[in-house]
Here is the input.
Amino acid sequence: MGIVRKALASRPIAALTSPHTIDHYLDQVHPMLAVHHVRARVVEVIHETGVASTVVLRPNGAWKGFAPGQHVEFGVEVDGKRRVRVFSVSSSARRKDGLFSVSVKAHPDGYVSQYLHHELVPKTLVHLSQADGEFVLPAAVPDDLLLLSGGSGITPVMSMLRTLRDDGHTGRVTFLHYARSREDEMFSDELDALAAVAESDPTGSLRVVRIYTREPEDGSELAGRFTIEHLKHLGVDAASTLSYVCGPAGLIATVRDTYDELGAAEQLRAEYFKVPTVDLDAADATGTLTFDDSGIEADNSGATILEQAEAAGLTPDFGCRMGVCNTCAIKKNHGAVRHVITGEVAANTDETVKICVQVPVGDVNVAL
Here is the structure.
């Protein structure tokens, strides 16, 4: 099949099928046949909690695989319209059956996540991107590792943990997860099993600790939200431990501050599962935001450009709303914008910006 795929992707075939692509014709034979376009069939939908599900997928031959911690653009067609969102891969990269999974919490206003949780069924055709993202383990995993997550942020971290387990990793791994309650926690049964194995392992190479912030369980060794005391209790030396954190902005901000105070910022890798809330009273919430193509102007409220566009009645394309994918990227004609995660200000003319994570600073004109 590799030889056939290489031949179909060749320049002579591209010339023969022009102006269409080879995938256009293969699609007429079978929707899973494609050289360039990644597609998958839903094998199973597993309800993890009342609001979260895992979707097990069988991809076609165009799929190149993933590194633990990466994400994919996940597209489903509903009522003749394809909707795309970005979800993290949650399965081990070492599965031998050719399958992989994404795990998603259904948000109240999330059309795709709600559809995935309530209506998606086996055999549904799903349109995917290749896996992407820099929130990944190094090729040589160090002996000390901290995997820290909060809420839905557990999904890419779970992929890392599962892969390390299947690789037979013998280094010390501390898995620390924060959830509101056990009922709100994803993968509870598997985490129970991992914790039981860890407790019986005399080497102590794996430690699994879960903290329920709203409904703590009796006898829990830790309680409340993340603090430096949690690291001390677990014996984690931040300065010498490669650490990954994924979750809401508040958790990541606290962890970042802690690592900064400890002089260990270079050891921390972070990925947001929700962008920080924008302060609508910020001093730079001045000026006018102009949607040039639509002929609409609005006073800058201080929210992201995407949120302000929606408030103005526009419907720009978007995917992750976290600055991960490029679905919402448009041209900024002129003006300055501030990135809500990094704080970086960009003021070049005719530059492309992701409007889900950019806030106008003064007068801004965008091609929307």
Summary: The chain has a mean pLDDT of 87. The longest strand covers residues 329-339.
